[in-house]
Specification:
With 153 residues, this protein is an alpha+beta fold. Helices cover 30% and strands 24% of the residues.
Length: 153
């Protein structure tokens, strides 16, 4: 099944693709690879989700924020590529988790994005290499920032 049909089957709505908030491009295409910039999680009303995991937010809320960052990445891909069906596979996901010093479940949080990609692109093409890194803070106080690399047709 193609990614666009799978997205519809899952009943997922993509947020509007975010505009850059600085001097950068939301994604860059080099050959058959797409590298996205870091994407932040947005609530249904378009506002940014804020908070620190382990203090303001719990692990499930962090998982949801990572999933929402993944949806934002998909929106950027669709805007730039015209269709998610051009994505051949996920190559790499890098997730940054704004958590308290004692919070160590960064991989479980970033699973929100990784599992979304596996649902949309399939268990083989939707799962790539990954890093999940804990950080002391993130821009605008968000709980997660995620970037990814994709192979495209």
């Amino acid at each position: 099944m193609d990614a666009e049909a799978r997205l519809a089957e899952l009943g997922l709505q993509l947020p509007p693709a975010a505009e850059p908030k600085g001097v950068y491009r939301p994604l860059v295409i080099v050959g058959n690879l797409v590298q996205t910039s870091g994407h932040l999680p947005t609530a249904d009303d378009g506002s940014l989700i804020a908070g620190r995991i382990g203090a303001d937010l719990d692990q499930p809320a962090g998982y949801d924020a990572a999933r929402r960052s993944g949806l934002a990445i998909l929106a950027t891909l669709r805007k730039a590529l015209g269709s998610l069906d051009r994505v051949r596979r996920v190559v790499k996901v890098t997730g940054f988790v704004n958590g308290t010093p004692d919070f160590t479940a960064q991989p479980a949080v970033i699973n929100g994005c990784s599992e979304l990609f596996a649902e949309v692109f399939g268990p083989d093409a939707g799962v790539g290499a990954r890093s999940a890194v804990g950080v002391a803070s993130l821009p605008l106080g968000v709980p997660v920032e995620i970037e990814a690399v994709f192979e495209i047709a």
